Amino acid sequence: MIKKTFVIKGMHCASCVKVIEDSLREVAGVSEAVVNLITEKATISYDPQKATDQQLMSAVSNVGYQALIEEELKNEDREKLLIKVAVSLIFGALILWGSFPGLMETAPDILKNFLVQLILATPIQFWAGWGFYRATIPALKHRTANMDTLVALGTTVAYGYSAFVTIFPKMVEKISIEPMPYFDVAVIIIGLILLGRYFETKAKAGTSEAIKKLIGLQAKTARIIKDGKEIDIPINQVVAGDLIRVRPGEKIPVDGEIVEGDSSIDESMVTGESIPVDKKNGDLIVGSTINKTGTFIFKATKVGSETILAQIIKLVQEAQASKAPIQRLADLVSSYFVPVVIMLAITTFVVWYDFGPMPALTLALLNMVAVLIIACPCAMGLATPTAIMVGTGKGAERGILIKDAESLETAHKIKTIIFDKTGTLTKGKPEVTDIVPIESISKDELLKLAGSIEKGSEHSLAEAIVKDAEAKQLTFSKVEKFQAIPGHGVEGTVDGKRIVFGNKRLMDKEKIDVSGAVNEINKMENGGKTVMMIGADDKLIGLIAVADIIKESALEGLVALQKLGIEVVMITGDNQRTANAIGRSLGITRILAEVLPDQKEAEVKKIQAEGKVVAMIGDGINDAPALAAADVGIAMGTGTDVAIEAGDITLINKDLKSIATAINLSKKTMRTIKLNLFWAFGYNIILIPVAMGVLYPFWGIFLNPILASMAMAFSSVSVVINSLLLKRQKLG
Amino acid sequence: MDKIIVTILGLAGIAFTYWFFLMRKGKEITVSDSVDILVEGGYSPEIISIEKGKTIKLNFIRKDPSNCLEEVVLSDFGVRKKLPLNEKITIEITPQKKGEFTFSCGMNMFHGKIIVK
Q1: Are the beta carbons of A42 and A8 closer than 8 angstroms?
Q2: Is the dihedral of CA A585, A591, A594, A600 positive or negative?
């Protein structure tokens, strides 16, 4: 029977305590479970043969909370580590006081006694330093070596030699060597390296913060309506089809569709947009977003791992685990690193022993230890992954989902970005932009006439007109003798008048003179709008222009890209004239018009053939092949329906400014990685030779192993901290 | 005289280090559905050969408290998992491409290999 403490996240009331305790006690093998609301901890007594930590954790998560055993253990580990650090450094300081020339004169005699130093050093070597042996021994069985192997070897050499000269001074004197121990070296090295490791685990915890935040966003319970009653149930028991009530200020538990009521909802979790969005009956809502004002009932459509938040979390986790191509070199080096360092350390010993000054054995030993200690493969191993974790996490916080490290790496090389026009630069749904009365008729009357006659039409432009009329709450008139004329427009009788509504060809056919409005028509058409004309009783009475509206964020987004020196290309199925008009208003000069959907991929490849790194931006629905063909495919999500699989990068916030942000993020992340690698490689390339003593013949400098351990202890920490600094970078 | 002995022993030590660490050949194990991988000073078995398109369960059991090994990373499969001590953590993969894919600890010090045939 063992007792363990877990941290429980997500508790907010006394009833939570009961729910968790009951759930834990139901696990076979658990004899006692006590949950404390204030300390947010659960103390569980259980039989480890019957119940595993995972079972206990899932018992907690089954009822909608989160048990964090690792973190708790980590904290305990960290505390233990800190004790070891303190004891090692205190004992080390005492030994140093009693043995360091210049200092030892002030020390009490007892500290100068070698046997006392041995007694102080032994527990540090084998208790504080046990972890190094514990990792080295099984690794050697596998004929592999790591960081710990080097530290274990280095400190064992220093400690072993010192212990030997302390216990058998006569033997050492016989071969005319002064029996001088170096216990301070072994002990302080252990203390400092453990201190470095303490800071490193602390800093590393910060790199996965983004994912913890995302997981913390999940709602814990849902209030479902069953048989006319409202009951609170844990989130994982909600099934698709359940009716759930959400009150003001509450978190929406799962994805679904509103069936009753309306409200404004803060969707910043998925969109990054902080202004709440109004939602009404029939609208889709996203789990974990926050209901602001109203009360409503919705039907759960996606639960568990299908929710958008769950998918986002999965994607970010996968991205953080992926490997950036830039890491390959570090991988290759680290697989040979430790054995090579051991060989260099042996070489150092031999060269110092054979050619070094007296006392040759001592100097050979100290320099060998310095080489073993200073080498730091960990910094190389941490350089790339820590930056990728921070970078992808930072992206996710801003609604930029990056599929893998490779995409993040490629994004900083993008030279050309191809925008699919419809649905990306524009909203993808035509809207009425201009209503121009020609005769003495009001705008509303004109729209009412057009709306009435278009109501029966199925044309996409008709939809825009009807919608606009409905939005202005105009009442439609009855239409008689309605007729659609394909390729021309529609005609019918409204309020006793014969109305024709359509393009120029229809007017020509009906012999209606439009010459008086020709300037107006040309102006609008040159602006990329589709102009429709309305005639009553053979006379032109007005014009209505319809266009696909450019997104608010488009211009700003493109300017930001041009500032980064990136060429912008627009690709569209529209005719050249419309395409040019939209291109002009956005400042795009390179326009590929009249491209059929299945040709987009070929156009991407053509631009790649110019030797450019190309990103393609689309909605991920009909341009999937083009997205896949591009070096980086960027899919614009729609906030409530994330086309996560479609792109290398998905912008769930719909904001075109995010493209520049994503590229900036890539640039900053790559800069951090390069700096990390430069530091990690440079550190080893410069300091290993220094530790070997290459400077000695010129300036008589060699590295004290204690200084070596100091450098080593802080090299991996500095890499992790540099990655964490990425969090504070501004992305513009 | 002592210098000659030290030099010879040193060279022998270098040769031994080279042989011991760098000339090691891992054993390859063919897996058809599931395999237990012991995580202790490395991964055993460390070379796993599997068939393309088949779903394989890799059960990692970590017995080694070294914090180097506390995570396992299968970067080609987008997996980074914490391995709590003495617990079986199952990772399912379905490789779609042939080739050799390495897996490693979080700090990239210990390696294993998945060969997809």
Answers
A1: yes
A2: negative
In A454-593, DSSP assigns E strands to 479-485, 489-494, 497-502, 530-536, 539-550, 567-571, 590-592
List helix spans (H) across chain B: 2-17
Work out the number of other CB atoms within 10 angstroms of the CB of residue A730: 6
Between the CA of residue A174 and those of A15, A359, A362, what are the distances in Å?
77, 14, 15
**Element of type H or E holding A263:** strand A263-266
Q: How confident is the model at residue A670 (pLDDT cuts 50, 70, 90)?
A: very high
Q: How far is A382 from chain B (nearest CA, A)?
A: 6
Q: Tokens 């005699």 appear where?
A: A109
pLDDT at A433: 86
CA A576 to chain centre: 39
For the segment A561-569, the average pLDDT, to the nearest whole number, is: 90
- Please determine, for residue A438, whether its predicted confidence score (pLDDT) is greater than 80: yes
Which residue from A minimizes the CA distance to B4? A354
Interface subset of A 218-257, CB within 8 angstroms of B: none
pTM of the model: 0.72
Answer whether B40 touches A (CB < 8 Å): yes
Specify which residues A592 forms β-bridges with: A571
Measure the CA–CA gap between A716 and A378, rounded to whole angstroms.
Answer: 6
Token code pair at residue A511: 């012999």
CA atoms within 13 A on the CB side of A203: 23
- Does residue A604 contact residue A630 with C-beta atoms inside 8 Å? yes
Burial of A716 (0-12, 13-18, 19+ CB in 10 A): buried
How far is Cα A7 from Cα A35, in angstroms, rounded to an integer? 10
**Between A53, A323, A378, which is nearest B75 by CB?**
A323
- Listed range (A455-464, A680-689, B11-20, B106-115) with the worst mean pLDDT: A455-464
3-class SS at A438? coil
Give the pLDDT confidence of A250-291 residue by residue, as tens digits.
888 899 999 988 888 888 777 666 678 888 888 888 888 888
List the one residue out of A231, A285, A229, A233 whose CA is nearest residue A260.
A285
Taking alpha carbons only, the member of A325, A333, A248, A330 closest to residue A294 is: A248
Q: Report d(CA B37, CA B39) in Å as an integer.
A: 6
**A334: helix, strand or coil:** helix
Burial level of A61, CB count in 10 A (0-12/13-18/19+)? middle
What are the beta bridge partners of residue A490? Answer: A484, A501
Quick check: A69 and B84 CB within 8 A?
yes
